[in-house]
Amino acid sequence: MPNAQKIAFLASETDVARDALRALSTEYGNVDPIEADVIVALGGDGFMLQTLHGTQELPAPVYGMNCGTVGFLMNEYQEPGLRTRLAAAQEEIINPLHMKAIKENGEVHEALAINEVSLLRAGPQAARLKITVDGRERMEELVCDGALVSTPAGSTAYNYSAHGPILPIGSDVLALTAMSAFRPRRWRGALLPKSAHVRIDVLQSQKRPVMADADSRSAGSVVSVEITSATHVSHRILFDPGHGLEERLIREQFA
């Protein structure tokens, strides 16, 4: 990142992030994101996702500083030497998923997801799902609390909590993972190529309602969801040397 003269600071609503915003703006100045060479996001992983979605049309990369809890997508927070860190930062480029969800009333809900697209039961009964990949039915019936498709960048989040695999950042692979699968009881999910077109149909959708979610953008009462990689959208994320996504994903598997 050779040129970071103009910095735009964005902060979450927490007191810690707001204090950091005031301190860093005083030290380095603060420009509008449209004019910035780099955007610095102050908060946790949730705010980083929000920032990436909100600035995806802008050319400036995003550098996160952790003012939250986990901070998997963030760098360590330090006030001194920020311009030096930005100059040395390494860039990772990730593509989000595109979700097209059809609701019971015929309404179409579309959204992008940097981490994962998930389907979750929205009632007391387990969901019944049919899974089709590239036009071929792969699972006639999956009875579960839900299912998700995860990117490598999101594989340590909800996917990992549901016992899905951690994916190397450059693997061009997606994880299809079930949540609390009841039938088939021993199904542990699948690894799919990044180019895969995944369709999940909700069986008995009125009796067993399901909601769909793309990075907290939700649609209720869905009957089908199609998931593809949005390769035309690229998110540029900056990390301190030796602490990029590839290293973090490897390190997480030995924790």
From TrEMBL:
GO biological process: one example: NADP+ biosynthetic process
Reactions catalysed according to its record: NAD(+) + ATP = ADP + NADP(+) + H(+)
Naturally occurring in which organism (per UniProt): Litoreibacter roseus
Enzyme class: transferase
Binding, NAD(+): D45, G46, N115, E116, D145, A153, T156, A157, Y158, N159, Y160, S161
Main location: cytoplasm
Family the entry assigns: Belongs to the NAD kinase family.
GO cellular component: cytoplasm
Enzyme Commission numbers on file: 2.7.1.23
Gene3D superfamilies referenced in this protein's UniProt entry, alphabetically: Probable inorganic polyphosphate/atp-NAD kinase, domain 1, Probable inorganic polyphosphate/atp-NAD kinase, domain 2
NADP is among the record's keywords: yes
Protein purpose: Involved in the regulation of the intracellular balance of NAD and NADP, and is a key enzyme in the biosynthesis of NADP. Catalyzes specifically the phosphorylation on 2'-hydroxyl of the adenosine moiety of NAD to yield NADP.
Pfam families listed in its UniProt record: NAD_kinase (PF01513), NAD_kinase_C (PF20143)
Name of the coding gene: nadK
Keywords: ATP-binding, Cytoplasm, Kinase, NAD, NADP, Nucleotide-binding, Transferase
Swiss-Prot/TrEMBL cofactor(s): a divalent metal cation
Domain of life assignment: Bacteria
Active-site residues from the entry: D45 (proton acceptor)
GO molecular function: ATP binding; metal ion binding; NAD binding; NAD+ kinase activity
Keyword Transport: no
NCBIfam families per record: PRK04761.1 (NF003406)
Protein name: NAD kinase
InterPro entries in UniProt: ATP-NAD_kinase_N, ATP-NAD_kinase_PpnK-typ_C, NAD/diacylglycerol_kinase_sf, NADK
Record's subcellular location: Cytoplasm
